[in-house]
Amino acid sequence: MMPVRSIEIAGSTVRVFPSASLACVAAADFITRTIQEATEARGRAVLGLATGHTPLPVYKRLVALHRAGEVSFRDVSTYNLDEYYPIAPTDLQSYRTYMDRHLFDHLDIPPNRTHLFDGTVPEAFVADYAATFDRWIAAEGGLDLQLLGIGRNGHIGFNEPSDVSVHEALRLPSRLMALHPITLADAAADFGDEGLVPRRALTIGVAPILAARSILVLAFGPKKAEILAQALRGPMTAEVPASLLQSARARVTWLVDEAAAARLG
Ligand code: PGA
User: Fold this and answer.
1) Best label site of 28, 72, 112, 126, fewest CB within 10 Å?
2) Active-site option among 66, 134, 144, 155
3) DSSP bridge pairs for 15
4) Residue 161 alpha carbon to ligand 1 centre in Å
5) Structure pTM?
């Protein structure tokens, strides 16, 4: 088996695994350590979580570790990156359903500590509501860890590519976003048809993501190779939101597979 390699790219640490499943084991172990260290230090751990296909094996492994008695979520709070808008939490395609099904239903986490944006908030209140989410995270002392995937268009959460300055992009708060055409195309399979994908979503902003005490980014497969190279080697730009992670590089760990690393050199 090929060994795990570490590459340093302009101060960012990238760990390249022979397979996505090995990278996901490492991610689950990292999250477990974070929970243990944060609960020892502060009596609680606050995790920022992600959805999509990428983190599924991480959640499977966390459930297995919990069942084996290796980790408890009793003192953990979670904040998910995003949720479609509008959508009911009970909808099969909602990220609330995804998280309950793949993670929360199998853990000892108290039910009032798993936070996802509610896609039923009336439109007139959505901006205030998104800002409230940022205050909830701050009131808990901030995120100990943010787990991230990256979209093929470089989005993190649903912070989609835009033409604002880097200065503005780094300050983007949680808010309602119009989804990018690539995001809509990539979500089509989950909804059965692109026309059924909600056109908007609530997302945690760039600023609260970058404020996390540690950030774990996962990218797997050949479809992520080009955007990964742009995020790590390219200039920081709001056109590639994942490149904004360079501003927090000392706190970011990239866990990728060989296929995603193909363009890193
Ligand atoms: P994926 O999505 O894990 O389904 O590839 C990643 C993302 O859009 O952040």
Assistant:
1) 112
2) 155
3) 6, 255
4) 15
5) 0.97
